[in-house]
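User: Here's a chain of 304 residues. Predict its fold as tokens.
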Amino acid sequence: MNLNHAFYFVKVIEKQGFSAASRALGIPKSRLSRHVRQLEETLDTRLLHRNSRQLSLTEAGKAYLQHASAALDCMATAEAAVRRRHDILEGPVTLSCSVGVAQFAVSSILPRYLAENPRVVVRQQVTNAFTDLIGDGVDLAIRGHVGLLPDSRLIQRRLAVVPWHLFASPDYLESHGTPETPRDLEDRAALVLGWRPDNDSWSLQDTGGKAASVPCQVRLRSDDMATLKQAAAGGLGIVALPHYVCRAEVAAGQLCRLLPDWTAGLPELSLLMPSRQGVPPQVEAMAAFLRKELPNVVEDRPLA
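Assistant: Prediction complete.
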């Protein structure tokens, strides 16, 4: 039995095609095809129906997939057990997160994880778009969300609640005045996260649970928090951002927090994993590291 043949066959099915498996594994599609073809030749049985548009399992393929997946899970568990005994962490970890989380949270702790684990290779996917963890071969993902995440197939661990605050530069406030109530925001220039024109109001909540929705005059929309923060520091308007993103600028006097009794959102930050079974030790170690260290970066400490 060639375990490589079995491994690549299972990955092709998990990723729903040779192209997706090739991208997830970082190997040529021709190599995957060769392994699967050699597996079929060894078994003298066709396992897959192939055409230009889709891939499907034969009855023999379904039976083989079930047993091969179980065998590979057992092998991964056995390897992880041995590595834990020797405290060896090595191999790849694929981590997905948004641009803002990558720039302002993970960047401050990831170098330390790598320094402590010199044989681990991290592949960081940075995107604000939806990512199919299972289809894209992602080991861990950090996601900000309001309410429950929809994909029940994923293992979800809450990391922290991350308040968003309103910020503006001292120069802007000197020129336009400091808002005292949410209604004072109506005629002010707004710098809004998200490039699509589907959000033209501030959604605020005070410490007592009272909500306010205030129309805003959008001056800039962007998917990039750094761009919005720089625009706010340059006096172009008022921005709502996670508090930890603006901590340094507030400390330096470049930004001021507005309406301190109100927040502009209380989303959660969660850590997602595709499965609990067969998780390599380096992935488990990074998950534990993120659960411990990331809340310290994003927690709501006083800004000023």
